């Protein structure tokens, strides 16, 4: 088979961390770590000054955590882990590594296992951490270690990335229920499904992980068919696609000022 010019390059384009305005303008790569071909799962710090992400060295499956300043400077490695999140005070991070969840300081010290699971997400008040394990969403109390399931039965598929609403009352997740053919973007009460759950969106396919709330809690960004979409939390309006997207784009996270979105992409430069 003869490939069109540029096709091979596009297939081999690495996934790196990008940022863009919420209207799709000023999109550009933030950082590209030499020797690492898969840089993913970016998370903005609560003060907007830094971005946390993970990456795998070329030819390796082991993932390492990195922090970089929001302007792309000051890159530094923290150690092993992936799918990390900032504590609300910005002094610690939670990450998963080999199916276990750890909390550590920003210098990589003080690493302590807190539970099992994937993709930990800190509640806005810092008292709880949400994790995904065995297609179930759990919330863990960081003081008492109490761990409770938010649903009565596991999903057929539950993506690792979830997101707390800014007021801590709800958690957004992308799942495929045990009953039904469609993927759903659900919003569940953080106390459990018995206190309220609703499907914000349903689709036959394409919707993937890591939905994220806007800082004002009124919108959700998520990826569908490798395009980043924005949906209103309330109402029935159709989600809108952020314009000017190229390549495969996913794992969005809003900046604290609501002006920017950091995301993973393999888009080629213009």
List keywords for this structure.
270 residues, mainly beta, Neuraminidase, 4-stranded antiparallel beta sheet, 1 helix, 24 strands, globular, disordered N terminus
Overview of the structural elements:
It is a single chain. The protein is globular. Strands 2-1-24-23 form a 4-stranded antiparallel beta sheet, with no helix packed on it. The chain has a 4-stranded antiparallel beta sheet with strand order 3-4-5-6, with no helix packed on it. It has a 4-stranded antiparallel beta sheet with strand order 7-8-9-10, with no helix packed on it. It is built from 1 helix and 24 strands. Mean pLDDT is 91; it is low at 1-10. It has 270 residues and is mostly beta strands. The protein has a single domain, classed as TolB, C-terminal domain (Neuraminidase), CATH 2.120.10.30. The protein has one helix spanning 7-12; strands spanning 16-21, 28-31, 36-44, 50-57, 63-69, 76-80, 82-86, 92-97, 100-105, 112-116, 118-122, 128-133, 136-141, 147-149, 157-164, 170-176, 183-189, 197-203, 212-213, 219-224, 227-232, 240-241, 249-254, 260-265.
